[in-house]
Amino acid sequence: MNENLLGIVAGILTSISMIPQLVKVIKEKDAENLSWLMLLVLITGLSLWVWYGFIKDELPIILSNAFAVLVNVTLLICFFIFKKS
Amino acid sequence: MNENLLGIVAGILTSISMIPQLVKVIKEKDAENLSWLMLLVLITGLSLWVWYGFIKDELPIILSNAFAVLVNVTLLICFFIFKKS
């Protein structure tokens, strides 16, 4: 329980830190600074973490990485919507 | 072992995805797009993940989050070195 709480707090903090970039990209409709290749690598890595969390049966890992997948898939979609030319 | 391998691959991928931003900031000597507050929140969260990894005795979690702490502490230092005025 104590370690789960620690994992949940850790997950909330690392999740919060992703929000500003997402808000900025959506607000400014500018995804110029994003790299689709790096987003793909990141999404693949995060998905493997979710898988790892399921195998280890650790809810904090599953939840925080699933949230990160969601944020970065949204960023990837924004990249293709907002990219110029 | 199999789950450790999965965790290590996941950790390598999420670690790789952080490198380009670090290289960009150091190369362009420009940290304008970084927020020190978000870096602090992220570093705190990642440090808690390292702690979580130690409690759970999971090497992939310890290693990948320790690497992420290193990258983001470097970004934070760059932010204060490169910031204008």
TrEMBL record, chains A, B:
Keywords: Membrane, Transmembrane, Transmembrane helix
One Pfam family matching this protein: MtN3_slv
Signal peptide: none
Membrane-spanning parts: 6-23, 35-55, 61-82
NCBIfam families: SemiSWEET_2 (NF037968)
Name of this protein: MtN3 and saliva related transmembrane protein
